[in-house]
């Protein structure tokens, strides 16, 4: 009998998971649903799902796998709704949320239903939202955290890895507490810092109009993630509340230590602060291993004249480098524009950068 997967929430992550399931298991029938009708329609027209179910109950009916891919607070509510619905005996219910403790605890509502809950979190993504940004290879080589709770037997761990094999991610198992602590440090807290930096610039803008014009490479790099979905990040912070507040304390101590170094004009200490950070950062796993994002964008400064886009795409095309997306970002003082090119792999991006440099185009990874 044909297997069925149900994906609830057809955004960046739900869409990418659906594509990965289809790639590895072409015979599987995928039903999906989203509260945003436009996303559901787009998911069908992009062949991300086979069927748009009008509601949750229809989507999950007879499903062997249910993937909850909504913002984390919504996922908890959906679990409660699922508890009141007919689910296929033996089905696996999983989620993709960025926090795990409250979701895994809430999943206990499914006990007694003869289904298995295994929390999940693919550790890759982007600041983009929506199914149009979904990619079959979004999670390639990234870590995919699985958090079994009492409802997930080890036999089902093997089964869920098989379902998600098409992600080409590397599966690891963690407890939910450990997951939330680690992702708090390397993912959630950095989002607070990025957004706070943006607020700092905005606060200065009225008196210092130049500030936004000068905000270039470094500011752009460190604040990219501030463009992510506010709904998603509000939920994440609230659900990882205790960890966030502990990290905030650590951060304040670190800031005050730097303040003291500055007050004392302590050149050696300041040097050590940067030196230690550099050598640790330089030793972190390469992009492909998932600690750092798997989105292969390249930003190219282009003069504002007709034909420049076809020149850039021509250079890449002639050397066999394919791009999967192109966007014009902004015009700088009417003389320069920025093209955002998205590549399928890091190798393509590097090769593209080299080719463009040969033709005197300046490009950078943003
Ligand atoms: N964006 C990332 O980088 C990333 C990476 C890993 C995990 N996650 C997690 O994945 C989940 C989804 O994030 P995303 O980036 O795909 O967001 P997204 O905004 O692209 O997609 C979420 C979708 O869920 C839909 N939705 C909301 N409430 C719903 C409901 N009640 N029923 C059905 N659909 C509903 C929204 O309309 C939206 O289309 C979040 O829990 C997030 O924490 C995100
Ligand atoms: O690359 C980005 O834009 C991301 O923010 C991806 C990122 C992360 O912080 O690394 C964001 C949230 C997820 O839960 C997992 C991955």
Describe this structure in words.
- This protein has 366 residues and is of the alpha/beta class.
- Among the domains are: 4-175, NAD(P)-binding Rossmann-like Domain (Rossmann fold, 3-Layer(aba) Sandwich); 296-364, Alpha-Beta Plaits (2-Layer Sandwich), CATH 3.30.70.
- Helices cover 47% and strands 18% of the residues.
- The chain is built from 14 helices and twelve strands.
- Strand 7 (143-148), helix 6 (154-163) and strand 8 (170-173) form a beta-alpha-beta unit.
- Mean pLDDT is 91; it is low at 287-294.
- Bound molecules: nicotinamide-adenine-dinucleotide and prephenic acid.
- Nicotinamide-adenine-dinucleotide binds at residues 8-14, 33-36, 39, 69-72, 74, 96-98, 121-122, 125-126, 129-130, 229, 232, 236.
- This is Prephenate dehydrogenase.
- It catalyses: prephenate + NAD(+) = 3-(4-hydroxyphenyl)pyruvate + CO2 + NADH.
- Pathway: Amino-acid biosynthesis; L-tyrosine biosynthesis; (4-hydroxyphenyl)pyruvate from prephenate (NAD(+) route): step 1/1.
- Pfam families: ACT (PF01842), PDH_C (PF20463), PDH_N (PF02153).
């Amino acid at each position: 009998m044909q297997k069925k997967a149900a994906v609830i929430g057809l955004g960046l992550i739900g869409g990418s998971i659906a594509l990965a399931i289809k790639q590895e298991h072409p015979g599987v029938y995928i039903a999906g649903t989203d509260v945003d009708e436009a996303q559901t329609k787009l998911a069908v027209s992009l062949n991300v799902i086979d069927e748009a179910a009008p509601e949750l109950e229809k989507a999950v009916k007879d499903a062997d796998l249910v993937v909850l891919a909504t913002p984390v607070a919504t996922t908890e509510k959906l679990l409660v709704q699922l508890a009141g619905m007919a689910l296929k005996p033996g089905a696996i219910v999983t989620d993709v949320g960025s926090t795990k403790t409250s979701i895994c605890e809430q999943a206990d509502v499914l006990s007694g239903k003869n289904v298995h809950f295994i929390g999940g979190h693919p550790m890759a993504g982007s600041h983009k939202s929506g199914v149009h940004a979904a990619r079959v290879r979004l999670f390639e080589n990234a870590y995919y955290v699985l958090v079994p709770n009492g409802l997930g037997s080890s036999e089902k761990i093997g089964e869920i890895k098989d379902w998600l094999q098409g992600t080409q991610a590397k599966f690891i198992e963690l407890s939910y507490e450990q997951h939330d602590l680690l992702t708090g440090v390397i993912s959630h807290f950095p989002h607070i810092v990025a957004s706070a930096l943006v607020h700092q610039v905005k606060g200065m803008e009225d008196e210092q109009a130049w500030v936004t014009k000068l905000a270039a490479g470094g500011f752009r790099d460190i604040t990219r993630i501030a463009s992510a979905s506010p709904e998603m990040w509000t939920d994440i912070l609230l659900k990882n509340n205790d960890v966030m507040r502990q990290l905030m304390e650590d951060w304040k101590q670190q800031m005050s230590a730097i303040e003291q170094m500055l007050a004392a004009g302590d050149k050696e200490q300041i040097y050590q602060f940067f030196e230690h950070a550099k050598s640790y950062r330089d030793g972190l796993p390469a992009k492909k291993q998932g600690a750092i994002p798997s989105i292969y964008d390249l930003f190219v400064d282009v003069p504002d004249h007709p034909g420049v886009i076809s020149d850039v795409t021509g250079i890449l095309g002639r050397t066999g480098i394919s791009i999967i997306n192109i966007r014009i970002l902004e015009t700088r003082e009417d003389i320069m524009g920025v093209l955002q090119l998205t590549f399928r792999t890091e190798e393509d991006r590097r090769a593209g950068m080299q080719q463009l440099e040969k033709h005197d185009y300046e490009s950078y990874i943003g």
